[in-house]
Amino acid sequence: MRRELAAVTGAEQVGPYTLLRVAQGGVDAGVPGQFFMLEAPGRVLPRPMSVCLAAAGELAFLIDPIGPGTRALCALERGDRLHVLGPLGNGFRLDVERPLLVGGGIGIAPLPFLSAALGSPPAIVGFRTAGHAEAAALLPQAEVVLEPTYVTALLPDEPHDVLACGPEPMLRALRRLAPAAQLAWEAPMACGYGACYGCAVEVGGELRRLCVEGPVLEGALVQAAA
Amino acid sequence: MRLLNASGCLDALAAPDVARSLDVFVTKTITPLPREGNEPVRIAETDAGMLNAIGLANPGRERFLAETLPRLREVGVPLWVSVGGFAAAEYAETCAALDEERGVEAIELNLSCPNVDEAPESAAEIVAACRAATRLPLWAKLSPSAWDVAAAARAVEAAGADGLSLVNTLRGLALDERTLRPRLARATGGYSGPALKPVALAAVWACRRATGLPIVGMGGVRSGLDALELVAAGASAVALGTVLFADPAAPARVRAELAAEAAARGFGQPLDARDTAHAHEPPLSSEQTTLRRKSLQTAAKATA
Known about the structure:
By secondary structure, chain A is mostly beta strands.
């Protein structure tokens, strides 16, 4: 992991989300599914964000403004600077034969980088509204469903290597249908590098730090909240 | 001047380089039995700090001694082991076990975790039990919640403590802005971060006046100037806590800033600023004023 002061190169609206682009500088983009801790201006703690796109000397993060930290990140403008720390955690394993990407809501965030690494495999993404679904434009070959239809409705019958990120009920449903799926989970984190024990989740009956063991876990069930 | 981490704010095995950038690594608190810790959600940021309710997650004494401690020795930074328990005898047993271990420089007694039920004994009773169990230096980590932290400091000094770690977190509560329900699964948690700095300064200042013990000051340190202020209040070493979560490079930065801030004020080294805050004599409290008036009256009567 490496911490750098990175310059914002752009911030674009994608539906209700913001795609925040920063100069990559000397940091490694990491593997799809890994994340960075982004300094949230005016806040005490940074926020964990998976890499959405990594190309042309830029790292891009897709951010949903749901709280004071993410709102501060979404308000950044070209030329602003912020500390980035990463890459952190374990990403997706890329040696898969028949990849199928599945995302739900802001869980689409790591999939564009993953898609690029895997040669644009098929993808299914689900959203609450048509506005949120504008984010599907970031992901090639994406089939889109809107609530009340769920991504599981489009899962093909033939076996695939499922790589997914999204809300907990979606990941649980996917694991029932594809027990070996690689699933990217989420938990509140203070540090992202194993120091705070804040992101402990129940994995196979034991509390483990998601930032160290995950966020991508293979064939494991996670209980992220009591 | 030594820079430490606050217990529970760094894992030297997950981030050995960060540990090596400190002068001392303080472990997460070890209890006799393994503890998974509290249910998630365990942390919540607030406007001026953060709450944690980790709940002393640790592998337990036996596994710590057999598996963790040997690996910590390999990191190559002096070790302090934070010891916790639910009775004085539990603390003392762990101290006795550590007494025979190589590579442990000191023991910090966590007498003030806000996220678990406390031992029935007082801090002084726990320190006395541990004093009888080990020759290692004992640092008593006290809560800033006590109305008179200086009284607690005097009590642990009398019981045989070698130093004070000031301060632990304060108990706090954060609510979800939408549901107005507690954000932490355990509802309340330990409040740390920038908001804690004035509380830490007050505790260090009061304990420095009350005891002769050396003090590791901690609470809300983000910059070298914050560290220098704790030294001015009476600390002889400083620990970093919440800032490590946001910035694992904080030790080197704080150290450099500390030297510069001390030099800018004419101090040859940071420790030369120690006790600067004590040049200020506060006015007498109303109680002291009453006592002084009475003694003056007595003296006047005697003269008459």
